[in-house]
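idk why but the lab printer keeps eating my pages so im just putting this in chat instead. protein + magnesium ion:
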Amino acid sequence: MSAIQSITVLGATGSIGVSTLDVIARHAERYKVFALTADRRWQVLATQCLIHQPQYAVLKDPASARELELELRRQGCTTEVLQGDEALAQVAADKQVDVVMAAIVGAAGLLPTLAAVKAGKKVLLANKEALVMAGGLFTRAVAQHGAVLLPIDSEHNAIFQCLPNHRADYLADGLKSSGVRKILLTASGGPFRNTPISDLAQVTPEQACAHPNWSMGQKISVDSATMLNKGLELIEACWLFNTLPQQVQVVIHPQSVIHSMVEYIDGSVLAQLGNPDMRTPIAHALAWPERIESGVASLDLIATARLDFTTPDYARFPCLRLAQQAAEVSGTAPAILNAANEVAVAAFLQRRIRFDQIAVVIDQVLSRLSSTEPHDLAHVQAADVEARSLAQQLIAS
Ligand code: NAD
Ligand code: MG
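predcted complex ->
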């Protein structure tokens, strides 16, 4: 093993951030924390700074940054506190950083993640929304700046592990050229897999956030309940593995033990299995191509006993169909889909719209705005802003 690697964790206080710090803490001989960032939860960030002693802590919110500064000085911690969007990009791109965990939720993660890519870092991508919004620009920047992009999303990490080692081949010529027939993207089906469809109008944010198998942030939990998350993951898979939506089949697998599969043209199907604990993909990507302990217990196949598979029901999960359509249209359609969804999910969490209206908002925004071919970041950001504003108007009316 070479020198200790310096890591920036973007979104350190979130579900993925906390799991990442748990894995890092198990391997002090391999990793040290360079910077930790969050939106505004300064108390959690203060505790993390006292444990990991990073060089920098960044908060997006200025008032929270002042509180953090006071608290760290009071505790005698030397971590320097920065604030704002530029500082997020700065700690993602700093010369001293080897690895960036991109775990900010939503479109807010795009710029700092892209800053890490443009600085040629090893980027561990949890922030799927960044790739959904700007996949073409993002993957071109990865190639141009020699960054290494590794998937943290459990399904994509599983697919990555099941694909051939010669990544350069499929990244250049597509998955078909590597003998892959299709990707089987598994989905738990979320908390409402068996709820009568007529009851979905009444579900509460608390019910939507109570995922049966995974403990995650609120936004991705709601996305899992609508299955828009699987749609975002379909788009994510197309960019990560250079394939088309038609080559990706979504399969409901309620136990979340198989994290996804790859089928080859000779009929072989490779799967990656494990307990539903994000420390496995995090440890895999951190150490890749080596392997390290993650703290995850052995999978007990006898206790698991059975693995079930079904096809998704589009009447129950209209968001999945909307995302598949946006994937096929491509251009700015995925960015529009993502923006409308972020606004709709926030409104649902604030009890301003019903659960079943999330799909209605996305559908209306997608049908009123036309997709164009994004030539630069400003173009993607303009599509994002326009879709957000239309979604807000629809919700307000
Ligand atoms: P979370 O809500 O628990 O945490 C989000 C983090 O982002 C927090 O640290 C928060 O402070 C920070 N943040 C939020 N808004 C910000 C802003 N405007 N500017 C700067 N920082 C901001 O979310 P999570 O569940 O950890 O998910 C993070 C990302 O990882 C999402 O894109 C999600 O889709 C993806 N992901 C999560 C899981 C999981 O198991 N949690 C699995 C796969 C993929
Ligand atoms: Mg996932």
